[in-house]
Amino acid sequence: MHSRTSLRCLPILANFDVISIRSGLRGTKTVYQHRLNTTSARSVSDASSSPPPLTSPSDQRSALARLPTTGIVRSLILGSFLASPLLFNPGLAFLQRITRSKSLLLNPDRNWLLRAVIKPLIYDQFCAGTHEAEIRKRVAAIRDLGFSGVLLAYGKEIQIYEKNNTSAEQVVAASKHDEELELWKKGNLQTLDMLEENDVLAMKFSGAGIFTVDAMLKNEPPSTQMLDTLDAIAQAAARKKCRIIVDSEQQSIQKSIDRWTIDWMRKYNRGDRPVIINTLQAYLKESRDKLTYQLGLAEKEGWTLAIKLVRGAYMSNDRRELIHDTKPETDQSYNSIVHDVLTQSLPGFDRQKFPKMTIFLAGHNQQSVDKATSLVEKLDRDGKLNIVPEFGQLQGMADDLGCRLLNWNENRVSSNELRPHCKVYKYMTWGSTQECMEYLVRRAVENRGAADRMKDDMAAMYSELKTRMVDALMGRKARTN
Hints:
By secondary structure, the chain is α/β, with parallel strands linked by helices. The chain has one domain: Alpha-Beta Barrel (TIM Barrel), CATH 3.20.20. It is built from 18 helices and nine strands. Strand 7, helix 15 and strand 8 (390-394) form a beta-alpha-beta unit. The two termini are 42 Å apart.
């Protein structure tokens, strides 16, 4: 087994994320754009075009009662910052400068004044912690709120370029393939150490180092050392009864990621408890073709396909022609995939003998969650809920939506204990403040892009905070669920 080292001293290559890859490789063209807008798209639209909201306004207040006051105050401060162009634009530019700067003065791990601002206001909103004790405390708090568990990932990210653009230092690093893999392996095993049964380890293959990224750029198979490393991590996760999600990355390496992950699923998803989960990005035009291909392969070869469905997070890096032209088209893609999987009506498969698969619905879109929960209830009433979805959101994003999902799920199960339980998770990233800066910048941009939803969330949080202040002044006991 691996040694227990200080998390602050964890090797810097553990589970890195690629932020920018310059590549001339071209991805596979989609052939499913037309079908998306026909049969399947109409079916989900007709079936649940106007689902009832997940909760009423009073239920939303009840859901917010789960959240700690510090979290609500921090969300309101960040919301005010993100909603104001006068504050957000220069603030984002400063955060990006910190992320890319080599100056010790702009390193929050070295500059206590900078850390004193970023850590409590931004880092603590989106991240799990910088050391093991802090991480375990934060994860325990998430469980206390009622969440089923966490998806935990190491947050360090770097820029990696195609081989002919690498610096001399990167070329030297690429020659140390075994060393890179060992660091990545230790990082993932140490993350597993902080998880409990049914939790999920989230990882990016790019974290295995420059040599591995170069192989993916060239569409080469994983090295023997990489295969041995993946076996060690998967076996450790299986022993602990945890799962592993392979996160999506940029399209220049995603084809290799999918192929490597399919091989991994082929080996470790043959029992009743699949270990490996692949990620499907609904904003890509080829997402349905990918799902159809992977499910067909799993059915033919006798293993279980496990999918995490997301909208997508690499729009600024991926080629625009690969992405749906409008947000409504992306929404339709996401919702129709959910519908066809849960109803076992995916074109090309026998509904009566639908292949075994699991699906994890990751996202912060209220309408998509409403459609999914409405469909779950209908299928459950009809005795046709054969695929029970799991739900998850990023820590610090749509926390009220996650809590409303908890209320919805608990109300369902309390009325009938035989009803299947839809687990709800939080995705959390850990690492030092500086190590998580790239991750934090992406979260800021994502939240800024959801301005309309944020206005409604802030209004509800202001109301909740006001209620708590009145309760405190009147000496009333805090409300609980």
